[in-house]
Amino acid sequence: MSVGLVTGASRGLGRALALGLARKGWSLVIDGRNEEALNTAGQEMRLLQPPGAQLVAIAGDITEARHRTELAGAAYALGGLDLLINNAGSLGPSPLPHLAHFPLQGLRQLFEVYPVAALGLIQETIDLLRATPTGGRVILVSSDAAIEAYPGWGGYGAAKAAVDHIAAVLAVEEPALRVWALDPGDLRTQMHQEAFPGEDISNRPEPDSVVPAILELIQSDRPSGRLRAADLHSPAAAS
Ligand SMILES: NC(=O)c1ccc[n+]([C@@H]2O[C@H](COP(=O)([O-])OP(=O)(O)OC[C@H]3O[C@@H](n4cnc5c(N)ncnc54)[C@H](OP(=O)(O)O)[C@@H]3O)[C@@H](O)[C@H]2O)c1
User: Fold this and answer.
1) With contact defined as beta carbons under 8 Å apart, do 87 and 17 qualify?
2) Ligand 1 center to residue 133 CA distance, Å?
3) What's the topology of domain 3-238?
4) Domain locations in the chain as residue ranges
5) Ligand 1 atom index nearest CA of 16
6) What is the tens place of the pLDDT at every residue in 82-107?
7) What is the pLDDT of residues 115-129, one digit of tens each?
8) Which residues form a coiled coil (predicted)?
9) Is 52 helix (H, G, I), strand (E, B) or coil?
């Protein structure tokens, strides 16, 4: 039975990915700060899991070291860790401020939730990932804002660029693992709405739309690297 740890799984992309993994029979460790929302999502996942698969939902803030230790401990108790998805995060100040007056405390928080928390959780789980016979998989959810210069996206984009670089270096330091920085593309989620306050974002695809291709990536031997969900081939997604 494969075990996956998905952060930020109470809504949006993390919830969609965790539901997809549950349907495929994975045991899961999930988190999010809002306990009620997390438990509601966890119940949906339990209904999809086959007998024997387990789900552990731990409410907490990924920027806190003790919470990250709890998540890794839960994976250990389930027998190990085959997949870590560092997905949790928030937009930062909204509406998106230009860099000339970007609040530095907001920038610090973005770096805490993205590169610092992601690396912290990788450090907590690296021994479990290394012990996976087929090679543990690590997905760090990135963004096109990591590589494009969009006005207003400098703080968020800088934090995501740091995530990309951590993924790239981790990949060469840990050749037995598959490490992917993954840009999911624009998705209709709470965070995306916060980025475009008052705008109708109903033309953006639902997070479910990228799940089949990402599940296929997880099962594949595709080399480590930076990927865009839009470039992943998935017959399931196309059908
Ligand atoms: N939506 C897009 O268009 C888009 C595009 C490119 C990249 N992304 C990336 O995709 C990922 C998911 O975003 P989304 O659009 O699905 O956002 P979302 O709908 O706002 O979901 C974010 C999830 O992360 C959790 N979370 C936020 N801060 C947390 C913290 N400090 N500790 C633990 N959990 C936390 C949230 O739950 P709580 O609030 O209850 O903690 C929620 O479950 C993010 O890394 C984002 O940067 C999104």
Assistant:
1) yes
2) 30
3) Rossmann fold (3.40.50)
4) 3-238
5) 16
6) 999 999 999 999 999 999 999 999 99
7) 999 999 999 999 999
8) none
9) coil
